[in-house]
Amino acid sequence: MNERSKQIVGQVLGILIIAGAVVTGLMVWNVNISHPNTNDAMVRANIVDIMPQHVSGRIVKLNVADNQWVKQGDLLYVIDPRPYQAKLAQAKARHQLTEKEVEANKVQIGAASAKITQMEHEQDAANAEIARLEAKAAYDQSYLDRIKPLLEKEFVTANKINEATAARDASAAAVRDAKAKHQAAIMTVNYAHKEHAKAEADLAQFGNLNAKIEASHAEVQNAELDVEYCSVYAPFDAYVTNLNIAVGEYVQPGQKLFALADDRVWFVMANYKETYLQSIQPGMAVDVFLAPYPGKHFRGEVQGIGWANFPDNIKEQGSLPTVERTLNWVVLASRFPVRIKLLDRDPAYPFRMGMTAFTTILGKPAQSPAAASKP
């Protein structure tokens, strides 16, 4: 082979190598874009802190141990309920007393209403009596006025005049006395009305509801809740974690005792470069491999892509950002968390929060476990 032939062969090989590199690069780029993958991922579960609600006291029963699996409804621990049971008994007793007092007040108000009605009837009768007495007084005055001129002509005696005058004065006195009693009766009725209104206000009755009874009933319900809060149950199937308490320890509301890792749903938080986000959509199927189980394949489904992360190169001074002068030769792509729900569960390969995961987006809708099991 002459020198010219060698040059041609070399040029062809060079072109083929370059073309192969370009094709390989395009294929790798296409795979990465259509099926993004990352090893920056971790198995996660929802964590719920378990703490006393509204009650404090010593733990008298602890039914769980660290790392134990619990079923929804299992009793976790019990705070000494005796102080709250005593408060509940007091609240129930006060509620019964309130009901008795309200009933007695209703009876008293009814009796007062009947008494006011009777007094008003008596007042009407007094008005009629005053009218009768005034008529008699007017008659006695008229009679006296008629017989006085007859005394000079001796048609009547002085004794008769004296009797008529006495009758007139007695009638006038009777009218004054009746009016005074009537005025006192009016004041008594008005006072009775005010007392009746005050009694009704103190009764606190609104339609079919009585505010005092409702308030005491609410106290009973609140005391019952406190007794219930003394016993804490598992809200869902979960694993107990970070338990560092023992029987006899005094706990208070809001004090974190341990945590529950929700065993109902496990997921992977995979951090993908922002350049891959256009290729990832909710509902896409995902291949998942976990570092502790080499070769074991799990299926997942994209639930969503995070909408925000905190840039690590932005600082703030007061209300203004601090921007440092830099010369970036290499620009690193930001990563956003992609939440992937794990669809497969295998008792032989249990999930643990924090496991390293490797994920590949398949770019097609995920199948349900039932559909995936069909041939």
Automatic annotation (TrEMBL):
Residues 266-360 form the p-hydroxybenzoic acid efflux pump subunit AaeA-like beta-barrel domain. Belongs to the membrane fusion protein (MFP) (TC 8.A.1) family. SUPFAM superfamilies: HlyD-like secretion proteins (SSF111369). The chain crosses the membrane at residues 12-31. Residues 46-260 form the Multidrug resistance protein MdtA-like barrel-sandwich hybrid domain. Keywords: Membrane, Transmembrane, Transmembrane helix. The keyword ATP-binding does not apply. It comes from the Bacteria. The keyword Membrane applies. InterPro entries: AaeA-lik-b-barrel, MdtA-like_BSH, MFP. This is Secretion protein HlyD.
